[in-house]
Amino acid sequence: MIQITNANTEQSIYLKLEGYSAKATTETVTVVMTSQLTGKVQEFADITPTTTNGRYQELKVAPPAETDPATNAVMEEGLYLVTFYNTAKTTVFATRLAFVSNVPFFGEATYDAYQVGDNTAYNVYTQ
To answer: What stretch of H or E contains 58?
Structure first.
C-alpha cells in the first residue's frame, strides 16, 4: 500500500511498474488517484521516475495546495485507488491502493472521567 500525506510537498512513491523499462528514466508516467469515499479524481501527469531499476521505480508527486476554500482542492484523507499509466493512458503499468493522511494530523480525543453527583451523565467531557 502506498502512503502519502495531502501536504503540498514533493513525496516519493516506490513501486514496481510492470512493463516499464528497467534501464531508462525517459518515459513519463501519469498517476491517477481516485478517492474511494467521494469519487474525486486527482491526476499527476508527466512524472518521470527519478529512480528505475529491475526491482522498483521511484515517482515523486506533490498533492495540490488548498488555494481557494470554495474549490476544496486539497485531497481528503482516506483510501484511494491509484492507477499508473503511460502518458497517453493506453498502457496500465500498475494499480495500487493508497492511504492519504491529513496534515496536520487529526488528534485523538481525550476524555475526563464522569464525576459522581454530576446531573449531566450523557455528556462527553473533554480536556
So the answer is: strand 57-61
- Helix H or strand E encompassing 13: strand 11-15
The closest of 88, 125, 93, 121 to 110, measured between CA atoms, is 125
Give the whole-angstrom CA distance, residue 49 versus residue 65: 22
Contact 48, 60 (CB under 8 A): no
**pLDDT tens for residues 66-114?**
765 655 678 889 999 999 998 899 999 999 999 999 887 665 656 656 5
DSSP conformation class of 126: B
Residue 109 backbone dihedrals phi, psi, to 5 degrees = -75, 145
Question: Distance (Å, rounded) from C-alpha 93 to C-alpha 90?
Answer: 10
Phi-psi region of 78 (alpha: psi -120 to 50; beta: other; left: phi over 0): left
Which DSSP category does 111 fall into?
A: B
Fold classification of 2-101 is: Immunoglobulin-like (2.60.40)
> For the whole model, what pTM was predicted?
0.75
Cα–Cα distance, 28 to 7 (Å, whole number) = 23
